[in-house]
Design goal:
Blueprint (H helix, E strand, L loop, with lengths): L12 H14 L3 H21 L13 H6 L12 H5 L1 E4 L4 E4 L5 H6 L1 E3 L5 E3 L12 H13 L3
Antiparallel strand pairs: 1-2, 3-4
C-alpha cells in the first residue's frame, strides 16, 4: 500500500495583520483609560453625593464638635467644595490615575490623626475607588478600544 500524504496550507495573513494592529494599539491605551477615568470620576461624585465609600459603606457622621463649627451641617467632605473640585483623572498609555493634590485629601480617604499635636482623630471616609457597578462600563471601554483594532 502506498503512503498517503496530505498537505494543508492556511493563509493566516489577515489574522497576523490583525494581531499586529492589536499589539500596536495596546501599547498606548490613553483613550480607553481617559474613558475609564470619566467613569470612575462619576462614581467618585456619587460617593460624595451619597456620603458612601466605593464599597457602599456609609461614611461616619460628623462629630458633634465639628457640627458646632460648621455652618452647613451634614455636608461631609463637601465644605467649600475644594476637595470635591480638586479630584481629576489623568490618563496615561498604560494606566489611569484618579486623585487630588489637596494635602488633606489623604487623611479623609484613609483616616488618621490631625490638628495640633495630632490630637483629633479623623475617621476614614473613602471617596476614591471603583464601585462594583462601575466594572461593566470599564470592561466595555476596554472592549471597545480592543475591538477598534479591526
Amino acid at each position: 500500500m502506498a503512503g498517503i500524504s496530505t498537505s494543508i496550507t492556511v493563509d493566516d495573513r489577515e489574522v497576523q495583520d490583525l494581531l499586529k494592529r492589536l499589539s500596536k494599539r495596546m501599547r498606548d491605551m490613553t483613550p480607553a483609560f481617559a474613558e475609564i477615568g470619566e467613569v470612575v470620576m462619576e462614581s467618585v461624585q456619587r460617593n460624595f453625593e451619597e456620603k458612601r465609600a466605593p464599597d457602599g459603606t456609609p461614611w461616619k457622621p460628623l462629630a458633634a464638635s465639628t457640627l458646632k463649627r460648621k455652618r452647613h451641617a451634614g455636608e461631609i467632605l463637601i465644605g467649600g467644595g475644594i476637595l470635591f473640585g480638586s479630584i481629576h483623572p489623568e490618563a496615561h498609555k498604560d494606566r489611569v490615575a484618579i486623585g487630588t493634590n489637596i494635602i488633606y485629601g489623604a487623611i479623609h480617604q484613609l483616616g488618621g490623626f490631625a490638628g495640633r499635636g495630632h490630637a483629633t482623630e479623623i475617621p476614614a471616609r473613602p471617596y476614591l475607588g471603583v464601585r462594583d457597578d462601575d466594572w461593566p462600563e470599564i470592561r466595555a471601554a476596554i472592549e471597545d478600544w480592543i475591538m477598534g483594532a479591526q
